[in-house]
Amino acid sequence: MYIRSRCERTFMVFKGSQCEQSYEEYKYMRIEKANHIHAALLAKGMSCRSWALSNGYNPRTVQKCVKLFAPATGRKPRTELAKAIMFHLSLAIDFDLVGVSDD
Question: What is the DSSP string of the chain?
Fold first, then answer.
């Protein structure tokens, strides 16, 4: 079932109890804030909590990392755990959250 929002830009797809943003809209999404990261995970079909549990992290620790180190904050993770969480989140949503270069 497709529903068009008032702004005519966002299409939502309902599958059972999940609500996902269509992939066409997701792949052009700019991820800057914590809620953008949560939306990108939802577009992939998982919540922040489900992603954390499936990757062996504490859900509260992942939420804190997302809030503290979202690109708009300008802060970079310093601890190994925070770096690992943000790196694995980057892989999950196909967007570089850490600013890792290939050098």
Answer: -EEE-TTSS-EEEEETTEEEE-HHHHTT----SHHHHHHHHHHTT--HHHHHHHTT--HHHHHHHHHHH-GGG-----SHHHHHHHHHHHHHHTS-SS-----
Encode pLDDT of 81-99 as tens digits. 999 999 999 999 999 998 7
Helix axes 80-93, 59-69, angle to 10 degrees: 80
- What does the pLDDT read at residue 53? 97
Position 9 confidence tier, pLDDT thresholds 50, 70, 90:
very low
